[in-house]
Design a protein that fits this description.
single chain, alpha/beta, Rossmann fold, 6 strands, globular, Alpha/beta fold hydrolase, AB_hydrolase_1, hydrolase activity, hydrolase
């Protein structure tokens, strides 16, 4: 039995994984999907004190709280930054890092290095208003279908702005830790271009494509669950 730890992206929360988590559990695995500080049901905590390190700590604390059980750590979109940093800190407990249509960091980057046109306007907005955090964009932009858009839009909450501005700290990758990148082929690729280039040029990464939009955990849970189970099979062999 594998324990999947599912890490959401910006504006989302653990709630977004419910459909995929149910399928993984039906296949006999344990699943947890923590909500990162300042988001979803934890939105009341949002402050400038929440940064990327806060979210890395959230993940590390969650996994260590499971005991010694090894995990497959899955990070979606923005979640690629804190999940990668957490996987490095967790060492052998994170058997397999899976990034789903996610940003792949290198040491010292900020998330907005992948979207440099947003650096100035986001910083100006944050400096002008202490209460400002990055507002969510409509779920349709993530490929969420019309039947789910009202539900998802009502769930999305502002992203703590400092999570986009703090440089990522990365320890060395643990020996033997597997890495898989799952690209959602229906999603636009401009912001993820650098990330895809990195994994496709690095033999330490396995690369998989699925025919789904960016929020595959909502729109295509069956397809995503199959890809995650296949990643688990690879980690076991």
């Amino acid at each position: 039995m594998t324990h999947f730890v599912l890490i959401h992206g910006a504006w989302h929360g653990g709630w977004c994984w419910a459909r995929t988590a149910g399928l993984l559990e039906a296949a006999g695995h344990r699943v947890t999907a923590p909500t990162l500080s300042g988001l979803a049901e934890r939105a009341g905590q949002v402050s400038r004190r929440i940064n990327l390190t806060t979210h890395v700590d959230d993940i590390v604390d969650h996994v260590r709280g499971l005991g010694d059980q090894p995990v497959i750590l899955v990070g979606h979109s923005y979640g690629g930054f804190p999940a990668t940093a957490a996987a490095r800190r967790l060492g052998g407990q994170a058997l397999h890092l899976v990034l789903l249509d996610a940003f792949v960091p290198v040491a010292g980057e900020i998330l907005l290095d992948h979207a440099p046109a947003l650096i100035a306007p986001y910083r100006q907005a944050a400096d002008a208003d202490e209460a400002w955090n990055i507002p969510p964009i409509p779920s349709a932009a993530f490929g969420v279908g019309p039947e789910d858009q009202a539900w998802v839009d009502a769930k999305l909450t502002p992203q703590p702005v400092e999570t986009y501005f703090e440089p990522v700290v990365l320890a060395d990758a643990p020996t033997g830790q597997r890495q898989t990148y799952i690209r959602c082929a229906q999603a636009p690729g401009d912001l993820l271009a650098a990330s895809v280039r990195r994994v496709r040029s690095d033999p330490a990464w396995s690369y998989v494509e699925i025919d789904a939009p960016h929020d595959a955990m909502i729109s295509h849970p069956d397809l995503l669950a199959q890809a995650l189970l296949a990643a688990d099979d690879q980690a076991q062999n």
